[in-house]
Amino acid sequence: MKNFMDETFLLNTETAERLYNNYAKDMPIIDYHCHLSPKEIYENKSYKTIADIWLDGDHYKWRLMRANGIDENLITGDAEPYEKFLAWARTVPKSIGNPVYTWTHLELQRYFNIYVALNEDTAPEIWDRVNEQLNQKDFGVRDLIKASNVEVICTTDDPVDDLRYHKQLKESDFETEVLPSFRPDKGLELNRDGYQEWVSKLEETSQVSINSYEDFLAALDARARFFNEIGGKISDHALDEVVYEETTMEEVSNIFKKARSGFKVSKEEEVKYKSFTLTFLGKIYAELGWVMQYHISAQRNNNTKMFQRLGPDTGFDSMNDGQIAKPLCRLLDALEQQDALPKTVLYSLNPKDNPVLATIAGSFQEGGVPGKMQFGTAWWFNDTKEGMLAQMKTLADMGVLSSFIGMLTDSRSFLSYTRHEYFRRVLCDLLATWVENGEVPNDDELLEPIIKDVSYRNAAQYLGFRKKPQHLKV
Ligand SMILES: O=C(O)[C@@H](O)[C@H](O)[C@H](O)C(=O)CO
After folding, report:
1. In the chain, where the domains are located
2. How far does Cα 8 stand from its chain's mean position?
3. Which of 221, 210, 314 is closest to 259 using CA atoms?
4. Cα(311)–Cα(193) distance, rounded to whole angstroms?
5. Rounded CA gap, 205 and 118, in Å?
6. CB count, 10 Å around CB of 110?
7. Which atom of ligand 1 is nearest to the CA of 379?
8. HSE (side-chain half, CA atoms, 13 Å) at 404
9. Which of 250, 251, 291, 365 is most buried by its number of CB atoms within 10 A?
10. Sequence-separated (6 or more) residues with CB below 8 Å from residue 151
């Protein structure tokens, strides 16, 4: 029997241990999608307690605590940090099998050198030992990022954001690149509250007077180029449902005018507006050489009472089960027909879509760009051992696993980089299984480059971070 989460954790054969320790373990991290605050990175925020860094914004933990019957006051309410930590310590042992159980202990091990299981009995000691370290001078978020060997962080940013902290970080001596991702969701949701205010902010930040849909597009273009100047290389869209209908600039201009006059537009009009706007944005991304990410099939903010109380991204979301294949293919094909399909990463929150996305990606690959179209890593409810295995097996079954750009944290916590270790262990154990079963030669000349590419080098190449010579040394 193995010891609890020892150095062979998730590595079930000597082959797996060799592959992970020799080729994955020490690779740098490129975290190309997360929700960390660039302000907190710039200010090198430090935390007083483990409750602050663990429980202040991580809705993965909040969901588990609710499922364990913990009162909301001890989750997002005004309970004392120590009481919230004890409530989490009561929840962790109940959550065996959940990745957050594993990540909790990986984080205790990797950042605080604590190798005991967290529960009510060990909580007081862990609270004291962790907080003592957090209050030392070299435990700011920049120290945590550096200790995690992170080379690039792509945050998620609204086009109307002034990116002041990205600019200041770029001018600072912080070695990790912190780059903005262009996330224009609020400009696509013209029937949602806040759309008019958002367009006004877009007008102000782009300095483009928006009196027509063409002006609106020009303003979006201006902001994308601003992001590009600051070093942005990636965009991101939440397509909770995928829609596409042929339309024209004239038709959508009239829809835009109707929306700007304060009227709700019909579902058909919304679809046409989104279709034309997404196609326009895709062309910009292609011209700038950016990567375009589509995060598909989230069903968000299901609990109205809690959405009104806590807002979005607070643990009340689920998978959507919409049909995505046809509209997604039509959207991508519209760009491809104009030779304007950018490098694209397709994620779905519903694993029923895994083979759909893997085969759609295969419909739009292009010579000269290995893995141009990516079936993206297991996302959100799927970034579990089984979810990662399912995604990589589907990709291997239907595409080229060795071109995969690998894992991201998608997190709001500065301790989440252990998710890359978790992923790399799952990857190496998967390849080792194929070797042990005789499906793949036990040949490190074959296996080493694949592991290093999927763990790090593909993301560096795909996102255009390859220019740093040290990238090529690993
Ligand atoms: O980018 C998204 O839409 C999601 O990742 C969302 O931010 C969600 O709250 C999340 O962080 C899941 O990991």
Report:
1. 47-134, 141-463
2. 27
3. 210
4. 13
5. 47
6. 16
7. 13
8. 30
9. 291
10. 28, 29, 30, 176, 177, 460, 465, 468, 471
Give the contacts of 470 (CB within 8 A, at least 6 positions apart). none
Pocket residue to mutate for ligand 1, from 388, 410, 412, most atoms within 8 A of Cβ: 410
Amino acid at 100: V
Strand 291-296, strand 234-239: pairing: parallel
Structure tokens, 124: 């007081």
| Cα of 19 from ligand 1 centre, angstroms | 31
Q: Which of 35, 237, 388 has most ligand 1 atoms within 8 Å of its beta carbon, as the pocket-test mutant?
A: 35
Helix (H, G, I), strand (E, B) or coil at 427: helix
Residue 468: predicted pLDDT: 52
Q: Are the CB atoms for 169 and 41 separated by under 8 Å?
A: yes
ipTM of the complex: 0.98
**Distance in angstroms (rounded) separating the CA atoms of residues 253 and 281:** 16
127, two tokens: 């609270």
Q: Are 33 and 236 in contact (CB under 8 A)?
A: yes
Tell me if the domain spanning 141-463 has CATH number 3.20.20.140.
yes
- Pair 93, 115: CB distance under 8 Å: no
- Which tens digits make up the pLDDT trace of 218-274? 999 999 999 999 999 999 999 999 999 999 999 999 999 999 999 999 999 999 999
The vertex-322 CA angle with 316 and 323, nearest 5°, equals: 160
Say if residue 78 is exposed, middle or buried (CB neighbours under 10 Å; 0-12, 13-18, 19+): exposed
Q: Which atom of ligand 1 is nearest to the CA of 312?
A: 9
Instruction: Indicate if 141-463 has the same CATH topology as 47-134.
Output: no
pLDDT of 63-90, one tens digit each?
A: 999 999 999 999 999 999 999 999 999 9
Cβ proximity of 330 and 273 under 8 Å:
no
Q: How many CB atoms lie within 10 A of CB 38?
A: 22
> Is the C-beta atom of 35 inside 6 A of ligand 1?
yes
Residue 182 host element (H or E): strand 181-182
Alpha helices in 207-289 (DSSP H): 213-229, 249-260, 267-288
Let me know if domain 47-134 sits in CATH 3.60.110.10. no
Helices 267-288 and 249-260, interaxial angle, to 10°? 110
